[in-house]
């Protein structure tokens, strides 16, 4: 709990809302809790941390610049000192443009390790592809790394291997073509989605209105049964069984 700055006798619950409701149901009137005299939600919510890695890096870097030791940060966050130092060095070898593009994304540290093997230009291209596909997984980053030509890799990283067979030039070219085609399709869908959805809504309403007319529905049941069935699916209405029976009389 953290103190209310406007009322010294009131506290705000930061974490444990479900637990406190369970305690109320069990009849508890008192319970021990951790009080935070300062408004510091990051430290006391350390076990439910949804801060993007780059934002986390900047917070740790700012704290260390102000004289806070890595050991103190590790103790506050309940993690190893090595993990703090790794987060502190997260953007080493990452271009400023790529870091800015990925600052609010859930990229893991392993993704940045892979991006670090690429040149600055390729990092920006890869970041743009990940954002366009909304895919920030390690597997996708490895695929981008595999599709990267040798001249777009950092020289001292080219010789490092991950124990896997290096893709051939033909495989890399194919991956690049497929990825470019997929990116084009995604952008095309994004551009036309709103209009297509509007057209579909109008069409459904119009078809439902047509089928609500018994004369039209009866005529289609007699002359265009296939179209009637498809129209019923589009309009999401019940089959007009009574109309079909009426036409047979």
From TrEMBL:
Coiled coil: none annotated. InterPro entries: ParB/Sulfiredoxin_sf, Plasmid_RepB. Residues 48-231 form the RepB plasmid partition domain. SUPFAM superfamilies: KorB DNA-binding domain-like, ParB/Sulfiredoxin. This is RepB plasmid partition. It comes from the Bacteria.
């Amino acid at each position: 709990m953290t103190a209310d700055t406007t009322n010294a006798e009131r506290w705000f619950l930061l974490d444990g809302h479900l637990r406190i409701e369970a305690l109320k149901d069990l009849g508890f009137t008192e319970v021990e809790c951790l009080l935070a005299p300062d408004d510091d939600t990051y430290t006391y919510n350390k076990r439910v941390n949804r801060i993007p890695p780059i934002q986390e890096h900047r917070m740790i870097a700012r704290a260390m610049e102000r004289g806070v030791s890595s050991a103190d940060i590790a103790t506050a966050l309940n993690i190893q000192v090595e993990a703090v130092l790794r987060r502190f060095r997260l953007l080493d070898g990452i271009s400023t443009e790529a870091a800015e593009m990925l600052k609010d994304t859930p990229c893991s540290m392993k993704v940045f390790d892979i991006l670090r093997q690429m040149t600055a230009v390729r990092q920006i291209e890869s970041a743009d592809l990940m954002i366009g596909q909304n895919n920030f997984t390690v597997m996708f980053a490895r695929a981008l790394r595999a599709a990267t030509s040798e001249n777009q890799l950092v020289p001292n990283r080219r010789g490092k291997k991950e124990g896997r067979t290096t893709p051939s030039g033909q495989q890399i070219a194919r991956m690049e073509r497929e990825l470019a085609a997929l990116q084009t399709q995604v952008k095309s869908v994004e551009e036309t989605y709103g209009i297509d959805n509007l057209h579909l809504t109008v069409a459904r309403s119009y078809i439902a209105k047509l089928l609500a007319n018994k004369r039209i529905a009866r005529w289609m049941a007699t002359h265009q049964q296939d179209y009637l069935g498809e129209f019923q699916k589009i309009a999401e209405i019940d089959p007009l069984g009574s109309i079909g029976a009426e036409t047979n009389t």
